[in-house]
Amino acid sequence: MSTTTLETPKKTVHLESATVRFCGDSGDGMQLAGTQLTTTSAIVGNDVATFPDFPAEIRAPRGTLAGVSGFQIHFAAKEIFTPGDEVDALVAMNPAALKTNIDALIPGGLLIVNTEAFDKKGLEQAHFASNPLEDGSLDQKYKVIKVDMTKITREAVAALGLSQKEADRCRNFFAMGLVFWLYDRPLDPTLRYIEDKFGKRPDIAEANRKALNAGYNYGETTEAMAVKYIVDSAHLPPGTYRSIVGNTATALGLVAASKLSGHDVFYGTYPITPASDILHELARFKNYRVMTFQAEDEIAAITSSIGASFAGKMGVTGSSGPGIALKGEAMGLAVMLELPLLVINVQRGGPSTGLPTKTEQADLLQAMCGRNGECPMPVVAAQSPVDCFYIVLEAWKIATRYMTPVIILTDGYLANGSEPWKIPDVSELETIEVKHPGPSVNGEPFMPYARDERLARPWALPGTPGLTHRVGGLEKQNITGNVNYEAQNHQQMVDLRAKKVADIAKELPPQTVEGPDRGQLLVLSWGGTYGACRTAARNLIAQGKSVAHAHLRYLNPMPANLGDLLTRYDHVLIPELNKGQLRLLIRGTYLVDAKGFNKVQGKPFTVSELMTEFNKYLN
Amino acid sequence: MSTDALPALPVLKATDFASDQDVRWCPGCGDYSILAQMKKMLPSLGIPPHKIVFVSGIGCSSRFPYYMSTYGVHSIHGRAPAVATGVKVANPELSVWVITGDGDALSIGGNHLLHAIRRNLDMNIVLFNNQIYGLTKGQYSPTSPLGKVTKSTPFGSVDNPLSPLSVAIGAEATFVARSIDVHIKHLGDVLHRAAEHRGTSFVEVYQNCNIFNDKAFEYLTDRDTKADATLEVEHGKPMIFGKNRDKGIRLNGITPEVVELGKGISEDDLLFHDEQLEEPTLAYLLSRMRHPEFPVPIGVLRSVERPIFEERLHAQIADAVKKRGEGDLNELFQAGETWVVK
């Protein structure tokens, strides 16, 4: 290394928060770099929120714009809800990554580039006419740190006798080391990770350690980096924490709901982005008696789950929009059979195949209406990665208590984004009580469609003497469950199924708001936009603006007090990552002139764009 | 739920398996006979009705579960094998039957049929093949012969039919059999064999739709022609057929041919049936034999033992519980890097 050691220690600056993005080729290990910085930041006590952004292609041609993969981390000394609008530091491993990500960097921000990748071929693949590192275009706007990461990494691992390809694969650890120095992060968690992951290949493990240290030392010694930043711990509530992404939280929620209700999970599914990780997680939990079934298609995934529910297990199916479309007819069957079932939709950009790896919340109307006939299903939506855990517990409680399939909406942003999770005390989680009728005594005929006070029918399990019964998609006679085509019976059954779902509202917690309980503007949101909406609203409330924020977790039915709430503000604004689906429901249900703020770019809202929009309704 | 505490069930009769619902198939439909044989056969298994589940899709045949006193699911078109898979995996103690038709199983539900068979769950699939769509009033089906004139093919069908048994064998079926609705003893025996098979048993039943495709199998049921048109295969026996038991099937190279016994051809020259062969070649060859070039084979074409899906699935779970202990939520939540905020 040719840098000069500074005589004086470097200046340190305390920050309330920082946002960093790693970007590079799909094969550059950027997701790993991001994950390590996340874990490390969480361990030092920051609040964190992350946003991975990767292409739909597994390995697009190396160095191309299509192949760029990124991972953004926001870490703070205060409570935060979003991965950050813009980034303070951008690490770009090649020209394509620079080109596709530079707009996210704040003016004056720190740009760290791997100069080695800026050769003729790399520049051509990124469609740069001239080398932006040399033409001065970047230096005017940003603080540019030019590092030949490839060369330094190769030198650092030279003694280990790795192939050049293997040596180059350690570059992401160099980048991590450099960023860890910049934000004063400890290396231990990453060193533990290396030991865990590469323990069986001591040479590779050692190379990664060396690259990590080389990056850290580079920061320490280079003149180009004169300041190191310190982000203190946040004052999070006391407890034991872990970092968790939404899909993992969903999987853990399923296992927890299974244990809390005494019903083993049967997860029938078909691989689809971005829902597959739920399967990958659950498939590992065999000693929790989780049955995972990779079905031949989406329809088999849900119908096998219905079969499992009929036989007394916790039937669950998970997918994304296109798969949910295929499950529509079977969801109708589950409504008719009045069996508990969870249908998880990890939403992605649509229509059709759309944007598989990007986020959107455009499947709300599909969830509400996407079946033939009058076919009401409860719909709930997670608001954050951690909330994926809790929403599953609630959904399973509703499903079993009311004997109904329930749709859970999450999205790609929640599924792959992470935040710290204050691990709950298992003994404090609510038990989910589920009843099954016992064997019939004295030959009393069993009535499979008799109802309790919640209008739920009995969940009688095959194998129970005296309770044999037949269910099916044909209209049921009330109480007996026999096939029936009579006019009045159909009216009654359609009404009963609708009332059963509508009455769930009686047992839902009332809708709360953050901010004044009446005023100029109510921001009403649902799903994964919670963090950005809450942050924007809080910022404006802090400025003394008359704005409140209500976030819906229950979409069908909606909380009983919502209609009243909507009348207490001059304006109701509904920001959504769709063309106005909740707005349509709200206007239709409550006759409120709700306005929309809608974006469909495969990206979450930024706080600043929301604040700008909210301000239009405020004085 | 355990039934051990209950008094021993009395010996069951066919009527113990009948539900209180009126059977609504057309008078004269072949389905009545299959229903009767099923009800007659079930008591011989010693399984009480509450431990049996019939699962069906959509179509005339799929009304079957409503007429049984067992548990039942009349599901959606083509999906019965998938629903049944969920039932069986969820509770392997249950005896699970899929009732389906040629349209339900081979057209809209073809995918599920393939995969249920290849997984080899311990369940039974009975396909009522009437070579027509009955419930939608008479369109041709995937088993209707080429040129078949129906409501949807007034100029004759231009679709090639497929053989359900060939499909099942191609999907690695471990038990493949065929019977005919009106051959009541044979049908009862085949259903019994299917029930006793460990693994997925696939039974095709030729079934007459007297409304939309009457007499499609007359050559197999008519007193004058049936003996010459039917080859009843039996394990270990030579393939002989004909009213006078004077015809047989011989292999010429890898092609079967019909030969007359006598005139220098003895039983020993004929193909001998072996339902337990490792390779399904013989069963496949039989599944390809069609009238009128060949007699139609009925009976058990193939019956072999293979590992069973739900047993393997539950063995993995049992093994994980044994090695790692019963899953503990605290341990699950605390996995990976954790930290404490004070």
Would you give an account of this structure?
The complex is a heterodimer of chains A (619) and B (342). Chain A is α/β, with parallel strands linked by helices and 619 residues long. In chain A, strand 5 (87-92), helix 2 (95-101) and strand 6 form a beta-alpha-beta unit. Chain A starts with 10 loop residues before the first strand and ends with a helix. Chain B has 342 residues and is an alpha/beta fold. Chain B contains 11 helices and 12 strands. In chain B, the strands form 2 sheets. Chain B has an 8-stranded mixed sheet, sandwiched between helices. Chain B has a 3-stranded antiparallel sheet with strand order 8-9-10. In chain B, a hairpin with a 2-residue loop joins strand 9 (247-252) and strand 10 (255-260). Chain B starts with 30 loop residues before the first helix and ends with a strand. At the A-B interface, helix 1, strand 9, helix 9, helix 11 and helix 13 of A face strand 1, strand 2, helix 2, helix 4 and helix 10 of B.
**The CATH architecture of the largest domain in chain B:** 3-Layer(aba) Sandwich
CATH top level class name of the largest domain in chain A: Alpha Beta
Count of discrete structural domains of chain B: 2
Largest interface: A-B, 75 and 66 residues
Structural class of chain A: alpha/beta
- Globular, elongated, flat, extended or rod-shaped: what is the shape of chain A? globular
Q: What is the name of the CATH architecture of the largest domain in chain A? A: 3-Layer(aba) Sandwich
